[in-house]
Design brief:
Its cofactor is Mg(2+). This protein is an alpha/beta fold. The chain contains eight helices and six strands; from the N terminus they run E-H-E-H-H-H-E-H-E-H-H-E-H-E. It is globular and about 45 Å long.
Length: 172
């Protein structure tokens, strides 16, 4: 079975790259945020507002655990690495960190009103960004710097690097 997990901060391109990667590999795309919203029959924004982040993180954890043994491209939420048990579990999977710069994230999400944690002040968002970076690195076998690359190009790089056993673990 082939499963490739994509991790990275919100706005790093996990869902978009995941779509292209699914097309290139003929594997299904499993977007955990979409699965959670469908199963809960509400948006993540509403979940955060009505039940809080802890509630959402538990649903996210449960959803992640159900991917064991599934074949596909699994796009995780940006906060999947917040729980230590998720990080330990992800370390045993094929995980790729889509690393985007802070300035790229700010530019990509400047008009986003749907992500609950993006609604904080800029300083709080930046602090969250830098706090999470080593956690993404901790769980990942490969790191892709997405700066200056289209989602299509990033997906092609992933295919090239995951099928080439002699490649390095960090590439652009």
């Amino acid at each position: 079975m082939t499963a490739i997990y994509l991790v990275g901060f919100m706005g790093s391109g996990k869902s978009t790259v995941g779509q292209y990667l699914a097309e290139l590999t003929d594997l299904p795309l499993i977007d955990l945020d979409q699965v959670i919203e469908q199963e809960a029959d509400m948006s993540i924004k509403t979940m955060f507002k009505e039940y809080g982040e802890t509630y959402f993180r538990q649903l996210e954890h449960d959803c992640l655990m159900r991917t064991l043994g599934q074949e596909g491209i699994i796009s995780t939420g940006g906060g999947i690495i917040e729980r230590a048990d998720n990080r330990e579990w992800l370390k045993k999977q094929q995980v790729i960190f889509l690393k985007a710069s802070w300035s790229d994230i700010v530019e990509r999400l400047k008009h986003d009103n749907d992500r609950p944690l993006w609604q904080q002040g800029l300083a709080d968002k930046e602090k969250l960004f830098y706090r999470r970076q080593p956690l993404y690195e901790e769980v990942s076998q490969r790191i892709i710097d997405t700066h200056g690359s289209s989602p299509e190009r990033v997906a092609k790089i992933i295919v090239e690097k995951t099928t080439n056993k002699t490649s390095s673990s960090s590439f652009k």
